[in-house]
């Protein structure tokens, strides 16, 4: 291992941690952070970004996105502290603005850039060097460089006299045995020091840091309490605890532990960061953490589905996070199924394979049907709904969790998460229905009773249709799917209770009559679901009316008002 006495530590709490709280740090916290880290023996403390208002709206960011000369003085005044670093983004700063930091504790400017701007950025880095600063180039998207491109880049960096070259484990996806290979292309013929910025998605930041030091790295990044975007970074206090034991004369972890106790425990309670399931998934799959975060927070898909979809995302090789990719995958109905065929071929394949298995077409021909959705009105109007059932004797279809409010004739699951959570609540008096895309091995794990499979095609951006009893739709709201299934069963009239709509939440924000832990709280996702369901209802209504049916009758209060006719009209 490299001589630990020669390793430098750069704490990036205020810069990288700013992604957590939008750089809106209290000045006292920053000042005390600088004081504590200086006492601890940290070599460089990165006090945010040098940002330019031309590129970043100051109304949208906190002060340390635009760390100024006055901010530096306010933070460091009266403290005999460590050297200061600032980060700049290539193309988003004015070189002349850096002159304001000359003569201050700002010693190091770190310049971050993507591969497509590498040559220009290294030239700018050389100009920063000639202003009188130490300079670091942070190679974003490092793994996308070829060997020849890296050799050329190293040559240019040496020519410009750059002091540090930094590589990040961008998605926190690496393990210690992979680290040496990461740095090998940069180790020979270099006149610069190597830096490593780890992320903690897989809780490997500490192990990977020492693998990097062993490989020849000279400087490593960390942050107090691991504060940073997503899963966060290598915690400074963990790194210092090790060095404190190995080199007690150089490092002292106690000031940082006191700092955490005074400020960062409360800060983390207000602005969570750190290891969790989405960030672990993104690390394992080498994707931007927002992909996993977006999918997990939708509360619709199980981990196997999400895992499979990462294969699609990785094949697209996106740079950063692009929500459109997730939205398209969801529209394409790729979850839980392998969709190698074109839509038309897939549709015909589904009809050929499944039509002969459908034994429930017109099973209750000419009957009234009542679909029980799971909105708050199902519980609120329970007594009136019971009177409705008593009067009209409809075939009752329910789904997911009904909480004993009603015992339907049929109880359906199409979502694997809901199936696992609630299948054991289904009354033995109800016929259990299970969607064909729930795997048989999962059914065998959870079901010890008779059940019937329901067949349907979940197709890419397809209009609603029913052919030979096979429903084609990409609707994933099971109660709306039950409306279509009612028609397949032979419904004369279809009534719906409890379909309140996602915009009709209770005062507590609940969209179900019970507390659904698997319901997303993301307002944008909720709105997408609401208007997506409205589109599906309109498609089904058009289909039913085109076949001579009455359409859809929602009998409890709903935001889907065009389908609403109050239950009292029927009693």
From TrEMBL:
Pfam families: HMGL-like. Gene3D superfamilies: Aldolase class I (3.20.20.70). InterPro entries: 2-IPM_HCS-like, Aldolase_TIM, PYR_CT. Keywords: Manganese. Residues 7-260 form the Pyruvate carboxyltransferase domain. It comes from the Bacteria. One of its GO terms (molecular function) is 2-isopropylmalate synthase activity. One of its GO terms (biological process) is L-leucine biosynthetic process. This is Pyruvate carboxyltransferase domain-containing protein. It comes from candidate division WOR-1 bacterium RIFOXYB2_FULL_36_35.
